Amino acid sequence: MCTNLFEVEIAAFADDAAATGPTASRTLIEDLVTANHILFDQGIVDAFGHVSVRHDQDPDRFLLARNMAPATVSPDDIVEFMLDGTPVNAAGRAVYLERFIHGEIYKARPDVQAIVHSHSPTVLPFSVSQRTRLRPVCHMSGFLGGGTPIFEIREAAGDGTDLLIRDQGLGAALAQKLGESSFVLMRGHGSTVVGPSLKHAVYRAVYAEVNARLQVEAVRLGEVTYLSDKEAETAQRNIETQIDRPWEMWKKRVQQWQASAA
Amino acid sequence: MCTNLFEVEIAAFADDAAATGPTASRTLIEDLVTANHILFDQGIVDAFGHVSVRHDQDPDRFLLARNMAPATVSPDDIVEFMLDGTPVNAAGRAVYLERFIHGEIYKARPDVQAIVHSHSPTVLPFSVSQRTRLRPVCHMSGFLGGGTPIFEIREAAGDGTDLLIRDQGLGAALAQKLGESSFVLMRGHGSTVVGPSLKHAVYRAVYAEVNARLQVEAVRLGEVTYLSDKEAETAQRNIETQIDRPWEMWKKRVQQWQASAA
Amino acid sequence: MCTNLFEVEIAAFADDAAATGPTASRTLIEDLVTANHILFDQGIVDAFGHVSVRHDQDPDRFLLARNMAPATVSPDDIVEFMLDGTPVNAAGRAVYLERFIHGEIYKARPDVQAIVHSHSPTVLPFSVSQRTRLRPVCHMSGFLGGGTPIFEIREAAGDGTDLLIRDQGLGAALAQKLGESSFVLMRGHGSTVVGPSLKHAVYRAVYAEVNARLQVEAVRLGEVTYLSDKEAETAQRNIETQIDRPWEMWKKRVQQWQASAA
Amino acid sequence: MCTNLFEVEIAAFADDAAATGPTASRTLIEDLVTANHILFDQGIVDAFGHVSVRHDQDPDRFLLARNMAPATVSPDDIVEFMLDGTPVNAAGRAVYLERFIHGEIYKARPDVQAIVHSHSPTVLPFSVSQRTRLRPVCHMSGFLGGGTPIFEIREAAGDGTDLLIRDQGLGAALAQKLGESSFVLMRGHGSTVVGPSLKHAVYRAVYAEVNARLQVEAVRLGEVTYLSDKEAETAQRNIETQIDRPWEMWKKRVQQWQASAA
C-alpha cells in the first residue's frame, strides 16, 4: 500500500481547471461557507469532517470545500464535483479523499440536497457499541426515529482498511446502508447525516450530537423511555419547520466570532 | 395533520395589534430580557426554551418574548398575552406555540409570578429515566424536595404527538401534574420550573441543572444520601433569601458579553 | 424559624465600624482578592463559596470578603474578623453567614493560614456517596492521602437543618471532623480545604476538583489503583514546592480577563 | 529526604552558561514554542507537562523549556540539554526535574524526534484502571494500536516515591517500558507520547486524549468494537499524512489568542 495517498491526489487534480458548466448561486456558496463555520463552532467537526450541498443549477454536481479545516473555509475554497467524485474546478487544489461519501449518496437519494460527515464526539461511541443503539430521547431528534443503521466497513472491504470511504465502491456501500434514513453511523469512524436542505443537514448533525449526549446520561440512570416511532415521525415533521431559529442564532455567533478575530 | 403549524401562526396573529390594557413596568420588561440572556449564558436554553413573567399591573396577563432564540431577545420583542394564550399586542409577529405552558400554570397557581421552560441538558435525561428520580443532593436545590413529578404526554394525548404543549388542554394537564411543586419534568421534552419572582424562577432553572449534574455523578459512585424532606424545606427557605447574589453576577456576565459584542 | 436570616445580619453589623487593631499587609489583601478571582476562573466557586486568610499581624484574626460573589471581590470588600466570627470592620456591610467555618478552624489548627470553602462540582458528589471515598489517583493530589473525612451535619444538629455552618458550635464540630487532615467533605454541601498559605489552599481546592474528575472517570473503568499512603505523603511534600507555577499562571489568566473586561 | 528538591536545582545549574555547540534552527525553536501553546490551548497540559524536540544540528541534544507553565513559553525560555539531562545553557534558570523522561527516550529510540509528557485528564484514568486498557476506537488514533503499556514506578523504585521520573535510572526504566510503542501510560501520573516530528507528537498527544474521551463513553454503552491491529496500522499510516491540517488550525487558534491578549 502506498504511504501517502493524500498528497498524491494534489497533483492528480492539477489538470481539472478547464471544466465548465452552470454556475452555482452565490447564496448557496455563502450558506455552505456558513455551514462549515457553524459545524466547527458547535463542536461537530474539528480539523476533520466536511459538509456538501447539491449544485442548485445542476443536480448532477455538488459543492464541497477543498481539503482543509472547516473553520477556515471561505467562498474561494469551494470546489464543484461530479457525482462520481471528479472535481470540476479544483485547479490543482487538494480535495477531500472521502468526497465519495457525498457523490454516492447524491446519486442514490435524489431527495437529498445536503450532507454532513463528522466524527462528532458523543455520536462516535455509538458507532462502536455492540449493545446500545442511538435512539431519539427527545422531540428535537425525531429524525433519528427512522433508525440509525451502522455501516461496518469490514463487510464491504474486509479487515485492515483505514476505515475511510476512499472510492466509489465504498461510497455506494455506505449509501446502501443509509437506505431511506436520515442518518448512518460508521463503525470506528463517525457518522453521515443528510437532509432536504443545508439547514436541515446542519440542524440534524448538531442535534444528533445533542441527542447522543442526552442518551449517554439517560442510559446511566437506568431503563430509558425513547420516543415511539409515531412520536418521532410527528416530532420530526413539526419541529423541523423551526430550524431557521437555531440556524440564525448559530450564524450570528460565527459572525461575531469572525468580527472579533478580524 | 398539517405540516407547518408554526408558520401558520404568524398570519393568525396579524390582527391583534389593536388590543389595549395597563402597561407593564419598564423594569419588569428589562428583567425579563435579562432573564432570557442569563438562561442562554448559563446553558439552560439554546435556540429553544422560554421564560415568562406575570404582568405586574394585571394578574390575568403575562409577558413572553415573540418566537425567537432567547439569546437575542430585546425589550421590543416582549409580547403580552392573555392567560388563555391569546397574544394582546403581537402585531403580526410569530409567537411561541407552547405559550399554553405559561398561561395554564398562571391560571392554576396564583402564587406563581414567573415560569421557565427549557430542555436543559442534564435535567432532560431524568425525564426519560424509568428508575432514577431527580432529587436534591445539596442545599442549593431544596426546591426539588417537594417532588419532581413527570408529565407523560401519552396519558393526556395518546401516543404519536410531537410532545409539545400546543393547546390549552395540554397546558392544563401539565399544570395539574405540576400541582403545588416548583418543578415538573416533561418526558422526552424537558422541564418547567416556577417561582414567586423572575429571580426565583431563573435561580431554580439554573440550579435544577446544577443538581442534575451533581446527581448523575453521585449515582455513578454508588448509593446516594439525598436531602431529607425537612432539610430540603429548611434549605429552600433560607438559601432562597440569597438569590440576588447569583442574579447580579449572571447579569454582570451578560452585560460584559453584550458590551464586547457591540 | 425566621425566614430571612441573611438579611437580618446586615443590620446586626452596622455598629462594628469603630473596631481597631494592627493593619494587615497590602500584599496579603491583594493575594486574597486574587485567590477569589482564581477560584471563580477555575470553576471552584460560582456565586457561592469563599476563601479566607489568617491576618499576618494578628493570628487571632482572619480576612474574608463581605457577603458577595467571589468573582467581583476587590480590596475594599475585604473584612477583618475575630476568630469567634465577629466582624471587626464590616461597617454595616453584610457578611457571610458561614464565616464560622473559618474562625473555628483557625482556632483549632494554628498551622492553618488559609481556608477555601466551596461546592466545587465534582467534589460534592463524593460528599453524598455511601460507597466511594475521594482518594488520590495521582501525584498532584497527595494532600488527599491523609484521608477525606465526611462531616455529617445530622450528627451535630439533627435532621432538618439547611446544612449551613451557621454558628460557632457547628464550626467547631466541622473543625473536629477535619482533625489533622487538609480536607473535609461536607455531606450535601461541598468541602473545606486548608493550607499553610493562600497558595497552598487555592492549589488544593483546584486539584481536589481535578482529582475528583479523574477519579469518577477511573471508577467507571473498573478497579482503581490509588496512591499508597507513602506515595501520597512523598508526592505532597515534593509537588507542593512547585505551587508557584500554577498560581502565577492562574493569576495571569484573571489579569487578562480583567483587562479585557475593562 | 530533602523537602525542596526543585528549588535546590535552580542553584545547581548556575554555572552551565559557558557550554557551547551547534545552534538549533530558529524554525525548530519557534515550532517548539508553538507546540507548548497548542498543548495548553487543547487542554493537554495545564501548569504542568512538557514537550521537547531533538536538536536538529546535534542528535545527542534536545530542546525543552525551562521550568515553567507551557502556556507562557517564549523562544528565550528554550534550553538545550545533553541526553543525560544536563542543561547546556540554562544560565542559572530552573529546569524541569523530569527532563530524564526526554533524554532517556532519545537515547533508546533514535527514530524519535519529539516527546510530549502530560497529565491529560481523560488519559490519566486509564493509567490507574486495573481492568480497562486504552485502545483505539477510531481511525484517528491508530497510533495506539501498537499497545499502550503502563509504567508502574513501584516496580522500578518501590512504594513511596512521588511518582516523578527524577533521575536517569527511572527515565531508562520508562524508556524500556515504552519499547517500540508510540505511547506509554504512567500509573498515577499521566502519559508520554513520542513521534518522528513535533507535529506527530503533538497530534498524538491531542488524539490520545480524544480517543480516551470516546472510549470512556463507549465503555459505558456496553461491549466495544475496537480497531483491529491491521486497521490501526493502516489508519495510522494513512491518517498521519494529514497532520498538517490540525497543526495549522491549532496554530492559528493560539495566534489569535495571543493577538487578543496583546
Kindly summarize this structure in a few lines.
Four copies of one chain form a homotetramer. With 262 residues, the first copy, chain A, is α+β, with helices and mostly antiparallel strands. Chain A has nine helices and seven strands, in the order ααβββαβαβααββααα.
Description:
The structure is a homotetramer of 262-residue chains. The first copy, chain A, is α+β, with helices and mostly antiparallel strands. The first copy, chain A, is 41% helix and 12% strand. The first copy, chain A, has helices at 5-12, 26-41, 99-108, 124-128, 153-157, 168-178, 198-220, 229-239, 244-261, and strands spanning 50-54, 61-65, 78-82, 114-118, 150-151, 183-186, 190-195. In chain A, strands 3-2-1-4-7-6-5 form a seven-stranded mixed β-sheet, sandwiched between helices. In chain A, helix 2 (26-41) packs parallel to helix 7 (198-220) and helix 3 (99-108) packs across helix 6 (168-178). Chain A is globular and about 55 Å long. Chains in contact: A-B, A-D, B-C, C-D. At the A-D interface, helix 1, helix 4 and helix 7 of A face helix 7, helix 8 and helix 9 of D.
What structural category characterises the helix and strand content of chain A? alpha+beta
Biggest sheet: strand arrangement of chain A: 3-2-1-4-7-6-5
Number of helices of chain A: 9
Label the overall shape of chain A. globular
Rounded mean pLDDT score of chain A: 92
**Would you list the SSEs of chain A in sequence order as H and E?**
HHEEEHEHEHHEEHHH
Total strand count of chain A, please?
Answer: 7
The radius of gyration computed from the alpha-carbon positions of chain A, rounded to a whole number of angstroms, is 18 Å
What are the segments of chain A in which pLDDT stays under 50 over at least 5 consecutive residues? 1-18
CA(first)-CA(last) distance of chain A: 44 Å
Beta-strand content estimate of chain A = 5-15%
Query: How would you describe the oligomerization state of the chains in this entry?
Result: homotetramer
Largest interface: A-B, 38 and 40 residues
* Main beta sheet of chain A: 7 strands, mixed
What's the helical proportion of residues of chain A?
40-55%
